[in-house]
Amino acid sequence: MLERSHLTIVRAIHECGSVTAAAERLCLTQSALSHSMKKLEQQLGTALWQREGRGLRLTQAGRYLLSVAQRVLPQLEQAQAQLQQFAQGVRGNLRIGMECHPCYQWLLKVVAPYLAAWPGVDVDVKQKFQFGGLTALQDYEIDVLVTPDPIPQPGLVFEPVFDYEQVLVVPTGHPLAALEHVEPEHVAREVLITYPVPTDRLDVYTRFLLPAGRLPRQHKTIETTDIMLQMVASGRGVAALPRWLVLEYAQRLAVQPVRLGPRGVAKHIHLGVRQEDVSSDYVAAFIALARTRDA
Known about the structure:
The chain is α/β, with parallel strands linked by helices and 295 residues long. It has helices at 4-16, 19-25, 30-44, 60-87, 104-117, 133-138, 184-187, 203-209, 225-233, 243-250, 281-291, and strands at residues 49-52, 55-58, 92-98, 121-126, 144-147, 156-171, 181-182, 191-194, 218-221, 238-242, 255-260, 265-274. It folds into 3 domains: 4-86, Winged helix-like DNA-binding domain superfamily/Winged helix DNA-binding domain (Arc Repressor Mutant, subunit A, Orthogonal Bundle), CATH 1.10.10.10; 90-161 and 268-291, Periplasmic binding protein-like II (D-Maltodextrin-Binding Protein, domain 2), CATH 3.40.190; 163-267, 3-Layer(aba) Sandwich (D-Maltodextrin-Binding Protein, domain 2). Strands 3, 4, 5, 6, 7, 8, 9, 10, 11 and 12 form a 10-stranded mixed sheet that branches.
């Protein structure tokens, strides 16, 4: 019978790169681990590893078992941690992944009152999942995904929490600042500053420039919102950001929003969760609170 310990061995050897290092991680002697490996192969009736010099290479069966381990073990570990928290009187740990660069400021408005209302729940924000959080949610590495671009998947639920408008940010006094809205040809003359993500994830490209067959004169990328808007304020380019965020910065920087096209570009922020977690009271409470905190 395949057991959790077997999956742990396969994952540890893969991640550590050697039997010696894996044995240390698992608090086993090298001989004990080697014996367990051989016993597992005998039990399964197939080889999982092949020796290559001093190293090991997974066979086809080994690669399959590794994929099972990488999928199943995080779920088991999450379940164990959750049950331990329940046993200790703690409700849980809410791990939030971000797929929306400028949404961090909005999230802070949700987290502060949430922590006050749920003292038994810890919150952890994992920004490393920006623009790659769907897999993390499915693999139990996060519990909530903040995204403007939900992709329906079996077992996942996406709840809309607030709407916003994507706008062009220009320096105060820029010729485009006097317009009620800009057209793609206006932006085609400018240096466009965006976050460092593929253009197929940028609405200013997919919903504004590319349908009109236009591209900016130059495209620069900057990781942080503060620096991006300071660059815009200093006349180094224009950017596309949520209107609510631009208005917050406009109070201290010489920037202002201009509508993209006559109808604007409407967007919606969603919270993605696993179907099985929707009924969890502290997850449901976070979603409900998020709906009351417009940016």
